[in-house]
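New here. Invent one.

***
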Amino acid sequence: MQDSIPGETKFPPIFPGLPSLRTRNWLILGLTLFVMWIISRWVPIHSGYVCDFLINWDAANSFFHGGNPYTFPTYYPPGSLMLFGLFTIYPREYSFAIWLGFNIIFLREILLNAKLTRQFIPWLLFPPVSFMFISGQIDLFLVWLGLNLQKKNWMAVAAAVVIVLKPQIAFILLPWVFIRDFRLGLLTLAFSVPLHLSPLLVNPNIYTLWMAATTGAINDYLANSPGIFALSNLGIPVAVLAVLAFALIVWGLRQPYTISKTVLLSTLPFGIWYNGVVLTGAAPWWFLVPIGWCTFIVSALLQSSLPMAVIPLAALLYLAVGRFNRRPAREAGLSQTP
């Protein structure tokens, strides 16, 4: 029985006697169904449990019943309520269970695309990924959609339109692609505008409510950004950081996509540390997972998110050094590595 996909990168097994690829697929499916069942039973019992998914569910449910979704602590733009509205088809506890089950599938597909099918458990321990399963955030879903962006078909357009619903992830995933596929950018704009205007049909004042809710949160997002803008906590002027960020972006957009995503994450002005889920598979797990947990522990001890900015910056350093070291070999005709 074949134990790999064509072209899969070979890694030494983490554990001896690793089951076949087909067996692993069934195990992951079983894990998915088990997680869905546990969550569906646990959430109703612990009625006080609050996470981002349940907050967004409540916000969308309130919106479609004539209420103000921004009475809940959510800052997603109004267009995203159309996505969250799909979750309200099912009761909140069952919807949460289904969503976490899908997140297991999303992670599996992301690793499969990166030819890292044997590394599901290590990457599950990467703090931004772990947080997706605790909070029910949509970042992992958007990263999975991003796998379609370089396809020359309508799947790329649909993926880009949905990704735009979360501006932070759009800032990371889309610029590199749009620069190289201007038509995709135009189509994304054409379909995104009606989607973002559609909430006005339900509540004509929805954007006023959103702006009122987010105005006070801008400084918090800047302070908690997952990259160089977090240095504003040390008193470095934002203008100085903006100049540095612009220079990095110009350089990053000329690099391969993985480096570009890491640069844009590092220069994200209004984000949060778990946006680092875009780094899944970008560098070796044995490098990012320990760094992730070390910075997470230090952040908890200091009660500051500043140390979490080390994660994308370390990943960027690893990728940039690796590319620089490969360049002499390519120039000498000794390597075909892009």
Observations:
- The two ends are 32 Å apart (CA to CA).
- The longest helix spans residues 21-45.
- Residues 1-17, 328-338 have pLDDT under 50 and may be disordered.
